[in-house]
Amino acid sequence: MLVPFIGYALGRRLIGYVECGSERLTDLLNRTESVVLREAYVETFDDETVVNLGDGEVERSILYAVETSGGRGEGTRRIQTVRHRLQVQIGPYSALGLLHATPGQMPLPFLTANGPMIPLSDATLGFATRGALTLRDVGTLIVNRDLIDWVRASDDEASAFPGVRVVTDSA
């Protein structure tokens, strides 16, 4: 199944489709080091130039975040979760959304258990285009944990981010 894909890299976004089969895009991104974009193009933020790429491979390591509206994956793999509000800064992008964790589990340690790409639902992504702030509300935003600069968290949750600056409400 082809799912829509908008990947945010430094100063640009890559737009196209990704073949996911029956798995979720998050699972595909966590399983592979790169993805093949179909019918892709690149839009730069400085001058909004659009370049057609056709089909091409994109390394996961350059993606700060990925916006998708694809399916939820196999129903048999879904589990009950509790939603937690999460704010992160990922390079030039700010994201705010809901992190899903299993009941009774602290949400931020959950981030280290499932691979570098973390889905946030009901998210807002903020970034600059041509010197102006752009905000995009998206159903699902997948953020790259390996590129997070800081995360807003409680003191108890801060230990889930070794080496990452944690901003608390008390700071």
Characterise the protein shown here.
It contains 2 helices and 11 strands, in the order ββαβββββαββββ. The mean pLDDT is 84. It has 2 domains: 2-68, SH3 type barrels (Roll); 78-166, Roll (SH3 type barrels). By secondary structure, it is mainly β. Helices cover 6% and strands 54% of the residues. It is globular. The longest helix is centred in the N-terminal third of the chain and has 7 residues, at 25-31. 30% of the residues are buried.
Summarize the structure.
It is built from two helices and eleven strands; from the N terminus they run ββαβββββαββββ.
Shape by Cα distribution:
globular
* CATH topology category name of the largest domain: SH3 type barrels
Give the strand tally.
11
| Amino-to-carboxy terminus distance | 45 Å
Second-tier CATH architecture of the largest domain: Roll
